[in-house]
Design goal:
Number of strands: 7
Structural class: mainly beta
Length: 116
């Protein structure tokens, strides 16, 4: 299409979403991990592979930091994909859609955030 001299043309580079892709396991099966520590006791949690079965409502799962606050990705807007395999619950998140999500990605990349 030829450019028209009476129009002002602007361009903005678009992110394809792959540059801000976070991938990992939100939980692993049969692999105890520290849930909580106090002065005297360490509490562990282990997730059974059957905990996430066909009865579990996974229709609109969200990704947050530390189970609270802002939603960084969600299934209903196609920025979050989850799947269960023999190791655990795998998560793939597109963190390119908002500035806060991109900041979260940068924090993950830098090692400031280790566990989601």
């Amino acid at each position: 299409m030829p450019k028209k001299p009476e129009r002002e043309y602007r361009a903005m580079p678009l992110m394809n979403g792959t540059e801000y892709r976070a991938e990992g396991y939100s939980t692993t099966f049969n692999d105890p991990y520290v849930l909580f520590r106090d002065e005297d006791v360490t509490y562990y949690e282990s997730v059974d592979p059957n905990a996430i079965d066909e009865k579990t409502d996974m229709s609109d799962v969200i990704m947050q930091f530390d189970h609270e606050g802002m939603v960084f990705a969600r299934m209903s807007n196609d920025t979050l994909q989850i799947s269960s395999d023999e190791h655990g619950l795998k998560v793939v998140a597109d963190l390119s859609k908002t500035a806060d999500a991109r900041n979260m990605f940068e924090n993950i990349q830098s090692g400031m955030v280790k566990d989601m």
